[in-house]
Amino acid sequence: MNTWWSYLQKKPSERAKCCNMIKIALDCHHLNACKARYEYGISDRCVYCNGGRETIEHVLFECRSNTETRENYWKKFEDECSIGLKNSLKVMSNVDKTNLLISGLGNTFTQEWIALYEKIVEFVHNLYIERVKLNASNINNE
Ligand SMILES: [Zn+2]
Predict the structure, then answer these.
(1) Distance of CA 79 from the midpoint of ligand 1 (Å)
(2) Does the pTM of the predicted model rise above 0.85?
(3) Which distant-in-sequence residues (6+ apart) come within 8 Å of 24 by Cβ?
(4) 47 CA distance to ligand 1 centroid (A)?
(5) How far, in Å, CA of 59 to CA of 128, rounded?
């Protein structure tokens, strides 16, 4: 079972956040890289930097427009990591880091990691929602 379903059973109040984690894990979300596949006339590019496609790894680790939010929540996540995990993350590519986080550290729910899951959800969800809201406000202002 997906880690986020198990996590949701332990933390029912995190329902909306878990739903977004699952959508992201299924690569079915509200970022341009996904929307461009289904909506005519939508570009898959990030409009806030010249960094390329607006994918989940772009928003989580690459985009220069949300550095402050990233650093804030990444620090909270790292504070919860073991030294081993922290060191592994340092040498991983952005795609590998994204996959590890989105899979809930490997698709198997581990009760002892619940505080870590909480920080992962906080990191991913806050960056994701901030971007979705920013995109929505830009569309409304056009
Ligand atoms: Zn960007």
Answers:
(1) 26
(2) yes
(3) 56, 102, 124, 128
(4) 6
(5) 7
**How far away, in angstroms, is 54 Cα from ligand 1 center?**
6
pLDDT tier at 38, thresholds 50, 70, 90: confident
pLDDT at 95 over 90: yes
Q: Which residues pair with 117 in a beta bridge?
A: none
Q: Output DSSP code: residue 106.
A: T
56 and 31 Cβ atoms separated by less than 8 Å = yes
Q: State in Å, rounded, how far the first CA of the chain is from the last one.
A: 42
CA of 64 to the centre of ligand 1 (A): 6
pLDDT above 70: residue 142: no
Ligand 1 centre to CA of 27 (Å) is 18
